[in-house]
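USER:
Make up one protein:

ASSISTANT:
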Amino acid sequence: MKIRVSISLSIGVSLFLLLSGPSLSSQSAPKKHAHVTEAYQQRVFDTPNDNRRRWSNNALLSFRQYGTSQKENILVYDQDGKVSREGTVFLPDAEAVSMFDATLNGSGLLLASGGTRDMKGHIAHFIAQLNETGQVAHVVRTTPFMARQICIARDDGTVWAYSGDQGTMKDSAVLEQYSFEKGLLKALFPRKELGREWWLLDGATPDQIHLACTSQRVVVFNAQSDVLLEYDLSSDQATRRQVTPLPGHKDLLITGFCMTEDGLILASLYQKTHQPPMTGVFQPNFDSQKGEWIPLEETLHRAQPDSDFQIIGTNGTDVIYSRSFVDRSLSWAKLTH
């Protein structure tokens, strides 16, 4: 399944209009409408089948999510698909470590979030920074906040995290910022001021949430309610934006979500229940008072069997994506906007 400009532009658009109806054609184009070309590079990443894959700082991270071992490993793959190094999340006195997420900071150091259980059954949650040798060097305790997703906005020793407080998530903040030296710095967007759709914590529902960072912005997108929460680091302003759902949005899955350094947001959507299943890349347009999803028309196409077309990330000039459940490779396509 390739991103095709010439073929899927005509076939993909006509099929998608069957899915979404005429409202799509009436949407206005954003000021910076993104486009992607056909893939120019493909690399195989032989990651363990049960591991989560996460693109961060031009590298692919692979780790087991929600395990219960005494230590958990993070594999770092370079852009040629080779393992360049490995990190180990191990904390003293922890009988079991469960990893939630991992990322790389601007200096290339690994960071991981997760939870631990000691011999007495006590649960604690943490964000850890690993050193150059792949061992835990700094830890900040986040209990009762469970940092399900983390990202780095600026290489200033702080980490941004999404999730909720264990047992008190109705009152918790959606987005928090931590320092390894000072602990909690900011707690933004209290759930009690947002709505029930943000009471997402356990089971499959966390997949509805997508977190992304740049040096200027931190965004959290709720795919269940099409709400985008944004924090501007320069102005210190937090805003809530509503994106108009696409027709049939209850059957749409957001398989990937990313943001470029200049603030362009891209999401890969998969209409699994539609016949034939459809997939493609969209960007939200906030030129109007209410945001709209704008398709990158050259990416719309029929989903093939075992398809899991998914944006993995960007490196500023390229979109990196995977093509299926069974294919272990990633593809690179040029991004313009």
